[in-house]
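Attaching the record inline, Q. Sequence:
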Amino acid sequence: HLPKTGSLPQVSKVISDAVNSATDALAIALETFSEQDREKLLPLFRDHLPKTMADMAFDHVRERVPEQYIRNAIASCLASKLVYKEGTKFVETLPKQKLAAVALRYLEKEHEVAVLKEALEGTAMPEEEKKSILKLLDAGGARTALGIF
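Structure, as predicted:
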């Protein structure tokens, strides 16, 4: 967890340790994922690539990039997403053996929240209320949908 007070290097180390620990656990767990579950995670790898490269060559990624590299990149991207969106404590308190399953469910819930937000955008209601609901969905939608507090 982050120290209540501390220097930037101390805080950076705590964040880095959380991301690295989660990356290691996710990389190991990804080896056991089904092909279908790995396919769901490929957009994370695509987002990891420079836009021009992704636009030009992503369709051929499986032919040209070693599977281990893709798996490690996905693990790193997913670990960073969880730590930076939910905090170091969220990742540190999850049992390592459950981290990958929770991360996959997190992505699914994140998608559900995006669908809800899109539906809300088209709803006729006062703008202030709409903004408040969108703000709540942004702040805690995926994590709340997971039921992990």
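Residues 101 and 140 are 19 Å apart (CA to CA). DSSP finds eight helices and no strands in the chain.

More tomorrow.
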